[in-house]
Amino acid sequence: MLFTPTVIMNLLRKPATRQYPFTVRDPFPNYRGELYIDIDGCIFCGTCARKCPSQCIEVDKEQGLWTCDPHACVYCGICRDTCPTKCLHMKDVHRKPLTEKTMMVEKGEPPKPKKKAAETAPKAETSKAEAEPKADDADKAESKKK
Ligand code: SF4
Ligand code: SF4
């Protein structure tokens, strides 16, 4: 009869489990659920693709395409944490089970290519050439004074 107090306690306590799926627990703060992207904030740097341990993200900078295989995602949150523009987010629920394989494909505005040094060099020469006539003008103005 040593266990009688335990039996009585268990009869009086509330159940330690929930009647899932009828009773669903509230998610914890910073829960790592379904991944989504705010494509307008993406600069297509590729950091998320390089850091992803399951290699399920692809970034095409030329086309402005961000692709993710959600079935390969392990919900680690590394992509979200390392994104420099903080445009990756995770919902507080997991993705619903699917019967067919899907891909997340988001199209954004690809970054404009930076101008090469060769393209900017003629401008510098032109501005130099523009500066020289001004010096001549100054000489002419001085000779007129004389
Ligand atoms: S790390 Fe962020 S900004 Fe860079 S490609 Fe991924 S989602 Fe876009
Ligand atoms: S949460 Fe982890 S596994 Fe999923 S896409 Fe991001 S880095 Fe990859």
UniProtKB/TrEMBL annotation:
Region (Disordered): 98-146
All residue ranges annotated as the 4Fe-4S ferredoxin-type domain in the record: 33-62, 64-93
GO cellular component, one term: membrane
Keywords (A to Z) from UniProt: 4Fe-4S, Iron, Iron-sulfur, Metal-binding, Repeat
Compositionally biased spans, kind Basic and acidic residues: 98-118, 125-146
The UniProt record lists the keyword Cell membrane: no
Annotated SUPFAM superfamilies: 4Fe-4S ferredoxins
Recorded GO MF terms: 4 iron, 4 sulfur cluster binding; metal ion binding; oxidoreductase activity, acting on NAD(P)H
Alphabetical list of Gene3D superfamilies matching this protein: 3.30.70.3270
Protein name: 4Fe-4S ferredoxin-type domain-containing protein
Species of origin: Pseudodesulfovibrio aespoeensis (strain ATCC 700646 / DSM 10631 / Aspo-2) (Desulfovibrio aespoeensis)
